[in-house]
Design goal:
This protein is α/β, with parallel strands linked by helices. The protein is built from 13 helices and eleven strands. The chain has one domain. Belongs to the 1-acyl-sn-glycerol-3-phosphate acyltransferase family.
Length: 361
């Protein structure tokens, strides 16, 4: 780890673990899909361990539940679920109204060439209201969904950084980071068009990507992210970037290869490790549909979360010259400090696993 630019001890390059860092996010390959045909669930879980659900709900949340769990679900359906659903909807609508009022007479930043639009650089009282209100509202969400949350923050080296780097386990990660630092995220382009959420994402300053695009869009988005990271490092009033370099979610026990987009700016980064201890339902969004995941999450009486903030990581000159090495070393640090297993699979393999599971369930 490099907490000080003058004290560096970079880890040697591991080409095997980074050979896929800069690959596009592909659809499942039909030839590879065919190789999973006929495999047992045990074989699939060994091959795609980073996406395997280990809770009582089983693969895709469709496992056979014990009677006790069925009773608990029944109780939660008539008590917790309605309350949590209504509260979440109220918070979403209230925050949308706040964002709408604060942006009424403000023109968004537009990049027609990259099809980007946001209010990230909106300043003054408008920005303050948007930030403070989301902190208060997400505190209510935490009380509602994550009453047991523990943070471990290392306050050393609190100099200006370029980006916050986090492992990715669930959409709950975004809610946590929104309340902790109100950063800008990278999101699917379709998010910008969603009712309510679209405007909120623009106020966050999200950078939108088209995951399935095979055009030069990826290069353009990478350039925007790099510029944002540099700006955040050099300008204290610029919005911070929050990036999930794995590119997709895992079950929380693994760390996938890092893509290099967060490290191209060669700016210092702040690694954050998120964990969700559980006994019944895992909040990890790995091999389960979004609607079913939200339902089970609302049914869980208590959800636990742990956040570990590591010191700011300053890249050595060698790492600045080689973003893949920089990404690899930060990944190794996070895996070591978070007791996470490094895996060399990615989003393409996740889709193959999901396709295979759909054939079994």
């Amino acid at each position: 780890m490099n907490p000080d630019p003058s004290k560096t001890d970079p880890v040697s390059r591991d080409d095997g673990s980074n050979s896929k860092d800069d690959r596009p996010l592909l659809k499942s390959d039909s030839n590879r899909n065919s190789s999973t045909t006929g495999e047992s669930i045990e074989d699939l879980e060994k091959k795609f361990a980073a996406y395997v659900r280990n809770d009582v709900y089983g693969p895709m949340g469709r496992g056979e539940l014990p009677m006790v769990e069925k009773v608990l679900l029944g109780i939660a359906v008539v008590t917790l679920v309605p309350i949590r659903f209504v509260l979440a909807l109220i918070i979403l609508v209230v925050y949308y109204i706040i964002c709408r009022l604060c942006t009424l007479f403000s023109a968004p930043n537009r990049d027609e060439e990259e099809d980007q639009e946001d209010f990230a650089h909106m300043g003054g009282w408008r920005r303050e209201v948007i930030v403070w209100s989301i902190e208060i509202l997400i505190c209510l969400i935490k009380i509602n969904l994550l009453p047991r949350m523990r943070e471990k923050i290392n306050l050393k080296n609190r100099k200006r950084l370029g980006a916050i780097i986090s492992n990715h386990v669930s959409y709950l990660d975004i809610l946590y980071h929104m309340s902790a630092s109100f950063p800008s995220f990278v999101a699917k382009r379709s998010v910008a068009k969603l009712p309510l959420v679209g405007l909120i994402s623009k106020c966050l300053g999200c950078v939108y990507v088209q995951r399935e695009s095979k055009s030069s869009d990826f290069k353009g988005v990478s350039g925007i992210v790099t510029e944002r990271v540099k700006e955040a490092h050099e300008n204290s009033s610029a919005p911070m970037m929050m990036l999930f370099p794995e590119g997709t979610t895992t079950n929380g026990d693994f760390l996938l290869p890092f893509k290099t987009g967060a490290f191209l700016a060669t700016a210092p980064v702040r690694p954050v490790i998120l964990r969700y201890p559980y006994k019944r339902f895992s909040p990890a969004w790995d091999s389960i549909s979004g609607a079913l995941h939200v339902f089970y999450l609302f049914c869980q009486f208590i959800n636990h979360m742990e956040a570990i903030w590591l010191p700011v990581y300053y890249p050595s000159q060698e790492e600045k010259d080689d973003p893949k090495l920089y990404a690899s070393n930060v990944r190794r640090l996070m895996a070591r400090e978070g007791n996470l297993t490094m895996s060399d699979i990615g989003l393409a393999e996740k889709r193959i696993y999901h396709t295979a599971l759909n054939g079994l369930f």
